[in-house]
Amino acid sequence: MRSKAVTKMVEVRGLKKHFIAERGLFFGSKKWILAVDGVDFHIEKGEIFGLVGESGCGKSTVGKLILGLWKPTAGRIYSDGQDIADMDGGELRKLRRRMSIVYQHPYSSFNPRMLVRDIVGRPLVTFGIAKGREKDELVAKALKEVGLNPEHMFRYPHEFSGGQQQRIAVARVLALNPDFVVLDEPTSALDMSVQAHILNLLSHLHQKYNFSYLFISHDLNVIEHMSDRIGVMYVGKLLEVATKEELYKNPLHPYTRFLLDAVLVPNPRRRRKHEILKGEVPSPINPPPGCRFHPRCPYATDICRKEFPELLDIGGKHQVACHLVSRK
Ligand SMILES: Nc1ncnc2c1ncn2[C@@H]1O[C@H](COP(=O)(O)OP(=O)(O)O)[C@@H](O)[C@H]1O
Ligand SMILES: [Mg+2]
Fold first, then answer.
1. Tens digits of per-residue pLDDT, 201-251?
2. What sign has the CA pseudo-torsion 63, 66, 67, 69?
3. Whose CA is closest to 163, among 221, 117, 105, 112?
4. For strand 229-234 and strand 48-52, is the pairing parallel, antiparallel, or unpaired?
5. Which of these, 20, 99, 119, 190, could form a disulfide with 194 (CB 3.0-4.6 Å)?
6. Cα(111)–Cα(210) distance, integer angstroms
7. Of all atoms in ligand 1, which is nearest to the CA of residue 216?
8. Ligand 1 close to Cβ of residue 284 (< 6 A)
9. Closest CA to 302 of 324, 317, 286
C-alpha cells in the first residue's frame, strides 16, 4: 500500500545473498560465497545514497536484490513501505517500471542489432506505456534530455562512444519516468573528462525529476561528488553509514578512515605514513569470523576476532559497526 506518510523509497532489513561457490576448487565440498551477509539501510525519497567499497564487496548484488532481479537468501526489501516479497505479479510489474538500473558497461545491455529507437523504446512497449509514433516521440524527448540528437535514434549502438552509449542507457531509464534508479558504477569505464559530463547529467536529472538514486561506486571521489548519504561496505557487510558531511568530517570506522586517507592525501609519501591498511581484502567465500575487517585493523582486540559488531546508531544519522566505537 502506498501511503503519503512513507518517506522511505527503499528499505532493506537483514538482507543476505549467498551463492554456492563452484565445486572442484574445494575438492567437492560445498562452500558458500557470502556476497551480501546481513545489510540494513534505507534510501529516502529524493535522496542519493552512495554505496562505496572495494571490488567484490557486494555492492552490485545489493543493487540487483533491491530491484528484485535476484531473490535474497534472507531479509526483507521494502519499496515505498511494501515488502516486495508480498507483491503480486501486477505490483511487481509496476515496481519494475518505477525502478531501473544503469550499468557500468551499457553496451552489454544493448542488443547490438537494434536501432537506438528500439533500445530506448522497447521498455515503453513492454510496459504498455506507448507504441508507434507516440513511442518515437518519447524516445526523441529522452534522447534530447540526455544531450543526444533525436536523429540518433536511427543509428546502432556501436556507432557511439562510451559516454554516448551511457547517455543512451540513461535515456532508456528516463523514458520510463521512474522514481528510483540504481546507478551501478555508471562512469567507472569512462575517461575522466567524459565521467564528469555523465555525473553532471545524472545530477541534473536528479534535481529535475527528484529521483532517488542508489549510487554504487568503488571511487570515493565520485561518491562524494554525488551522494547525500553514504554506506561503506566491506565483504558483504555495511561498516558505516552517515551523511556525506558527517562521514568526511568524522569518519569513525578504521576502514572508512583508511579509505578517506587514501583519497584525501594525494602525496604518496605522506600517504604511506597514514597507511593503516595491511593485507588483502578477505574472500567472501571464507570470511573471517568476528568483524570482517579485523585481520587488517591495527586496533583489533579479542572481541573483534570473535563477534561481529552490530551497526549501531550513534546519533546524527550516523551508524557504525565497530567494537572500538560502541565501547566508548
Ligand atoms: N551470480 C553470481 N554467482 C556467484 N558469485 C557471485 C555472483 N555474483 C556475484 N558473486 C560474488 O559475490 C561477491 C560480490 O559481488 P558483487 O556484488 O558483484 O561485488 P561488487 O559490485 O562490490 O564488486 C563477489 O565475490 C562475486 O564474485
Ligand atoms: Mg559491482
1. 999 999 999 999 999 999 999 999 999 999 999 999 999 999 999 999 999
2. positive
3. 105
4. parallel
5. 190
6. 30
7. 21
8. yes
9. 324
Q: Could you identify the atom of ligand 1 that is nearest to the CA of residue 283?
A: 25
Residue 62 Cα to ligand 2 midpoint, Å, equals 9
* Domain map (residue ranges) of the chain: 8-227, 242-328
* Dist. CA 98–CA 287, nearest whole Å: 35
CA 320 centroid distance within chain: 19
Query: How many whole angstroms from its chain centre is CA 113?
Result: 29
Residue nearest atom 16 in ligand 1 by C-alpha distance = 58
What's the CA-to-centroid distance between 70 and ligand 2, angstroms? Answer: 14
Please give the model's pTM, rounded to 2 decimal places: 0.93
| 49 SS3 class | strand
Phi, psi of 179 (to 5 degrees): -120, 0
Q: What is the CATH number of domain 8-227?
A: 3.40.50.300
Nearest ligand atom owner, CA of 61: 1
Is 107 in contact with 125 (CB distance < 8 Å)? no
The band of 279, judged by pLDDT with boundaries at 50, 70 and 90, is confident
pLDDT digits (tens, 9 = 90+) for 24-63: 555 567 788 999 999 999 999 999 999 999 999 999 999 9
